Amino acid sequence: MSQLPLFQPSTWTVAGITQYLRQLLEDDAALQDLWVVGEVSNCSRPSSGHLYFTLKDASASMRVVMWRGAVLRQEYIPREGDAVEVHGAISIYETSGLYQLYADAIRPTGEGYLYQEFLRLKARLEAEGLFDEERKRPVPRWPHCIGIVTSPTGAALRDILNTLQRRFPLARVVLAPTAVQGEEAPAGIIAALQTLNAAIHPDVILLARGGGSIEDLWAFNDEYVARAIAASPVPVICGVGHETDFTIADFAADLRAPTPTAAAELAVPDSMELRAGLEEQKDRLKLGIRSVLDTPIWRMQGLQNRLRLNSPLTRLRSGRQHLDELCRRQQSGLLHLLQLKRLRLEGASLRLETLNPQAILGRGYAIVRQADGRVVRSVHQVQPGEGVRVQVGDGEFGARVEDQQARSKP
Amino acid sequence: MSPSSSTLTNSSPVEELTYEQAFSELEKIVSALETEENSLDESMALFERGQELARYCAGLLDKAELKVQQLCGDSEGSDPALTDFRPLP
After folding, report:
1. Residue A378 β-bridge partners
2. Would the CA dihedral through A325, A327, A329, A332 be positive or negative?
3. What is the rounded distance in angstroms from the CA atom of residue A310 to the CA atom of residue A313?
4. Beta bridge partners of A369
């Protein structure tokens, strides 16, 4: 007796499981960005503009759909039996339960073959040393003559001429017109390179072509074009296609430019830079001549100064000045002495004044003299009744001695 | 007297020079003025030549117009002829 499982398996609706599966596919990043190679069958393109076909190989097949918008962007629309590579994402068309490839790009597998061919040729020429850095020649700073190898009617030529006119209109430009796509293109490019080198001897050659498919650019992957570029006596700048396009010619060229415009920019200096450089030289020229002129003037001034310092006139002047100085010092010395003497004199007069007896008499003292004129200095010098003369501040008078009394000594 | 200054000033008339020749001579003159000991007369001659070259270079830049020619004739052998190239408008 079989045991019932603990949990019954869940029951899905058709829509539910289909949605679940679709989610599984769409969550897988590897299935959302892939290339699938196969053969086209059951191809149909109804009035809606969408493209439907089956992609198959020996043992399997799958449905492919490409919406109208993507179809319109394709340069190549596959036909029954074509071998193609289809890029897109895998999902499920829920209505029919079919899984499909939703395509956004289709290319014939021949391109894959071309790409392999490109890699093989590149490896071979690389091994040969054709792309070696040592082979690359420097592009001249200021080319007088620029050779251009391109189509006379292409956008590449217009871009190049506009760029050259804007940046470096001093250059002479010689165009060697040639087809740049199709079967004759490689031979045309080689002949143009050779004719330019033989007849014009330009300073640099621009080899250019606008963007296009890998087949459009195929002439630039030609082995003999690459060899002609490497053999050119003057440097070749290659500007083919867009930034992302690399060709054998790019590797063989002395300089690779991402676009024709960039090739022209790499070939010539910018005239704005030329003007800036010219201004700098003009400034330095003026500074240079000024310093040249300044130097002799400065030297002359130095000599003049020395001459002046050593001239007899200067010595004479300096001697005279010395003399003046001495005189001045002498005079001032004399003056000083005189002043000193005057001061001393005044001091002496002052002292003399204090010694003048007349001045003392003015303060109330008196001088007493005997009849014979002797000054009385002692009581013992006079007798009572003797007549004396008394001198005071403003005159004198006669007097008589009454008595005498000596001061007892302390 | 420095030999380089005399060779510098004895150059051809500026009108015969390319921009590159004129500019490179100007550069040489400037460096000679800056570094060499020249007599006053030589220095003045260098300066005048330098000014003439600078004027000439500026004039070339001012009035320059790209000259475009085209190689014609068959690429095989015979001398290719040059014609003025008029780009389509």
Report:
1. none
2. negative
3. 8
4. A375, A389
* Cα→Cα distances A308→A298, A299, A312, B10, Å: 15, 14, 9, 42
Residues from chain B that touch A282, judged by Cβ atoms under 8 A, are 51, 54
A401, A388 in Cβ contact below 8 A?
Answer: yes
pLDDT at residue A34 greater than cutoff 90: yes
pLDDT of A125-179, one tens digit each? 999 999 998 889 998 888 889 999 999 988 999 999 999 998 888 889 999 999 9
- Compute the distance between CA of residue A287 and CA of residue A300 in angstroms, rounded to an integer: 20
Its ipTM equals 0.75
Strands A34-44, A83-93: pairing is: antiparallel
Question: Which chain B residues are closer than 8 Å to A195 by Cβ?
Answer: 71, 75, 80
A13-32 burial, b at 16+ Cβ within 10 Å, e below that, comes to: eeeeebeeebeeeeeeeebe
Q: Which has the higher per-residue pLDDT, A300 or A34?
A: A34
* Dihedral sign (CA A108, A109, A110, A115): positive
Chain B, residues 3-32, CB within 8 A of chain A, namely 18-20, 23, 26-27, 29-30
Q: pTM for this structure?
A: 0.54
- Residue at A157: amino acid letter: L
At position A33, the amino acid (one-letter code) is D
Q: Which amino acid is at A159?
A: D
Measured between alpha carbons, how far is A241 from A211 in angstroms, rounded to an integer?
Answer: 4
Say how far apart CA A329 and CA A277 lie, in whole Å.
Answer: 69
A288/B34 Cβ within 8 A: yes
Alpha carbon A3 to its chain's center: 84
Chain length of chain A: 410
Name the one residue in this structure whose structure tokens are 């004396």: A388
